[in-house]
Amino acid sequence: MSIAKWMALGVAAIALASSMTACSGSSGNPRFGGYEDEVQPGYEEQVEQQYVEPDPEPPSESDIRQMTEDLGSDTWSCVLSPTYNEDWHDDVVCRKGAESHRPYLREWDDFVEEWELMESAHEYEVQLNAGG
Q1: Which of 33, 103, 111, 118 has the fewest CB atoms nearer than 10 Å to its CB?
Q2: Which structural domain range is residue 101 located in?
Q3: By three-state DSSP, how is residue 127 classified?
Q4: What is the pLDDT, as a whole number, of residue 1?
Q5: DSSP secondary structure string for all residues of 59-112
Q6: How far apart are the first and last CA of the chain?
């Protein structure tokens, strides 16, 4: 037998031995006859780990009032909100809690840029929050 045939036979033997070792179950995968070192949690265990105890009692009126003040939902806030109607004068929406409206700002200005609109929106927001 020539050296090339011996080498080919040796490579084939090594490939066969390594494929037999991979299929023998030493990989630890239980699907192929192996074993797992640690048991994976099932659905019930995962749900129990994610469970959060509910609050024992609902928040009081004063707690709710404090939370609304902390969130700022008792004041007006005006933000850019484009209408895409070719009229930049109404591209701002002002909100206070569930209330909202769209003011028509800078009526005297024929061409309004975004920075000008937001400047006027801030002035309008201050006026609303002052009670005007």
Answers
A1: 111
A2: 70-129
A3: helix
A4: 62
A5: PPHHHHHHHHHHHTTTS-EEEE----SS-GGG-EEEEETTEEE-----TT-SS-
A6: 104
> Pick from 85, 76, 81: which is nearest to 117 by CA?
81
Position 9 in a domain? no
DSSP per-residue letters across 9-51:
HHHHHHHHHHHHHHTTTTT--GGGT---SSPPP-HHHHHHHH-
Query: What is the rounded CA–CA span in Å between residue 123 and residue 74?
Result: 18
Number of domains in the chain: 1
Q: Six-digit token pair at 10?
A: 């040796």
For the four alpha carbons of 4, 6, 9 and 15, in that order, the dihedral sign comes to negative
pLDDT, tens digit, 9 for 90 and up, residues 86-130: 888 889 999 988 888 999 999 998 888 899 999 999 999 999 988
Please report where in the chains the tokens 């048991």 appear, as a residue.
39
Residue 34 banded pLDDT, cuts 50, 70, 90: low
Region at 25 (left for phi over 0; alpha for psi -120 to 50; beta for the rest): left
- Position 29 in a domain: no
